[in-house]
Structure prediction request, 180 residues.
Amino acid sequence: MHTPSLREGLRETRRFAIFTNLLDEVGLGAALDNPSYAVMLLAVPDQVFAKLRSGVLSHWRTDRGRLGGLLGRHVIRGALSIANDLRSPAGRLARGSAPQLDGGRIDLRQPLLASWWLDSADPAAMARMGEGFAVSTFGGPVEVRVRPGTVTAGDVELQLAAPCLGARRWYEVDHLIGAS
Prediction:
């Protein structure tokens, strides 16, 4: 059975062409091609780049180091998962009402749990409401924080109910982390 690469999955959606091209330009595109390579993306759709002021993207392209650091914070080593925290007393749900996890629907009224896996079956870090941890990205560490009804990575809110490719391969985000 063919496991699609991240690049194939992004191409199928037809909304991430600029993002994937920029990753290629700064040398991070290889992380998209190997289906078994342990990365996940905070993927930036084309519509976000279309909203940039005129000339900003071409200016970033002249400074590959800055662009690489900016984009690198969107390529997380390992996998990041968000689910309902069923171990919390407040997270206990009535029988038969448990939410679907890992890319399915998440009940924002229930406590959330963020987990990060890195080369292991056990999570390298976990955070519940009010907690956080740093994930390793190709652009340096990015803090993941759990707040009521949301999880943030850096300064972007993760779209919790949005499906990912396969098991935790990407989250679509609405802006570039740290861009000004």
